[in-house]
Amino acid sequence: MDNNSFLSRSLALARRAPLSLVLLLLVSASLSIAVSFYLFLFVAAPIPRPPRKSEKTYKTILSDGSTSESKPLRSWLDNYAALKEMARKKQMPADEAYQISDPEIFMSVVVPAYNEEDRLDVMLEEAVDFLEQEYGDAHDEDGVARSTSTTATHKKTQTANGNGTSGTLHARVPSSSPASKGWEILIISDGSSDKTVETALNFARDHQLSRTTKLAHPTYIASGSIRVVSLEENRGKGGAVTHGMRHVRGKYVVFADADGASKFSDLSKLIQGCQKVEDKAGRGVAIGSRAHLVGSEAVVKRSLLRNTLMHSFHLLLRLLTPPATSRIRDTQCGFKLFSRASLPYIIPFMHSESWIFDVEMLMLAESAGIPMAEVSVGWKEVKGSKLNVVWDSLGMAWGLAVLRAAWGVGVYQRD
């Protein structure tokens, strides 16, 4: 029997079949496809691993120039999650639980770093110059932040918190005098195999002792201003940034690439942009943007392949992301600022740990109704990028499609 005869007989049988049977087969096929697609997404969608014990500690340089032992890295997210669980169990009023703890300092800087021993010094030099000039320090000699706020803190003790351990939890009471000074830098070494950690600690030591040593650029910083966190294995840029943002103490939080490509002093522009759009709850996001540089010499000199992939990715973003996110002209610039009040609506729900994590952050902000502002910043091309233009571009496209689908069909959900 040839193919034409088989097809003819199949069509004839389909015409003679009852309509109800045809509909049943169509519904069954549709359900099978839908279930298969959901199961595929359930397997393919990334699920971040929990942080390990050593990753919830940090090292810093003490006032005598020695390196500290590993110290516990406090997490606002752990406290926030435990308070939410208490509110869910009616153990405390919800309006006391669903708030993040007050800031201790004005600015937190999160720097993801993977094998950045050659480029980190330059970025840190520019950063500490600006931060020290603009915000001073808020640390004592042991690296403990001195809060400039006069926050009243409500304490509620329970025998078992959200992690099943005893402890005292703190619920925020809005401060009448929020932190306006002080800064910190959290360097998240993302499973580095070079001397990234040593480079960061040596930089901190040199600048803390700069009053007694001869440096070419002697910007003095207080002990404990720079904290270094070591991840046991590489998680990806998104995983490193998210991990750092779980432990920040600032009223505002910015993440900045370790290569120093973004003009760090433009942080003031991000703050102004964020403050202009903040809602009544103090939530806001400012997105550093290089869109104004399209057509500039730095972009024109890029290869045809790189520019083609860039424009293709932007088209994909417009097609797959929700309205506010799709209107952002540059989602991938590694210089973004978040108000502290916006963090609980974004950080607990992050899944992507790859290059596409920026987009997930912006989508989460949009879904929570957090205002966003795109702000033009200075930028320069820096050698030593670890981005593989072709493979990472394909990976970002795949990651975006999986991310959008996972949120769309309910594989990922907010609490």
Automatic annotation (TrEMBL):
<dbReference type="InterPro" id="IPR001173">
    <property type="entry name" value="Glyco_trans_2-like"/>
</dbReference>
<protein>
    <recommendedName>
        <fullName>dolichyl-phosphate beta-glucosyltransferase</fullName>
        <ecNumber>2.4.1.117</ecNumber>
    </recommendedName>
</protein>
<dbReference type="GO" id="GO:0004581">
    <property type="term" value="F:dolichyl-phosphate beta-glucosyltransferase activity"/>
</dbReference>
<keyword id="KW-0472">Membrane</keyword>
<dbReference type="InterPro" id="IPR029044">
    <property type="entry name" value="Nucleotide-diphossugar_trans"/>
</dbReference>
<dbReference type="GO" id="GO:0005789">
    <property type="term" value="C:endoplasmic reticulum membrane"/>
</dbReference>
<keyword id="KW-0812">Transmembrane</keyword>
<keyword id="KW-0735">Signal-anchor</keyword>
<dbReference type="InterPro" id="IPR035518">
    <property type="entry name" value="DPG_synthase"/>
</dbReference>
<keyword id="KW-1133">Transmembrane helix</keyword>
<dbReference type="GO" id="GO:0006487">
    <property type="term" value="P:protein N-linked glycosylation"/>
</dbReference>
<keyword id="KW-0256">Endoplasmic reticulum</keyword>
<feature type="transmembrane region" description="Helical">
    <location>
        <begin position="21"/>
        <end position="45"/>
    </location>
</feature>
<comment type="pathway">
    <text>Protein modification; protein glycosylation.</text>
</comment>
<keyword id="KW-0328">Glycosyltransferase</keyword>
<feature type="domain" description="Glycosyltransferase 2-like">
    <location>
        <begin position="181"/>
        <end position="276"/>
    </location>
</feature>
<feature type="region of interest" description="Disordered">
    <location>
        <begin position="141"/>
        <end position="176"/>
    </location>
</feature>
<comment type="similarity">
    <text>Belongs to the glycosyltransferase 2 family.</text>
</comment>
<feature type="compositionally biased region" description="Polar residues">
    <location>
        <begin position="161"/>
        <end position="176"/>
    </location>
</feature>
<dbReference type="Pfam" id="PF00535">
    <property type="entry name" value="Glycos_transf_2"/>
</dbReference>
<keyword id="KW-0808">Transferase</keyword>
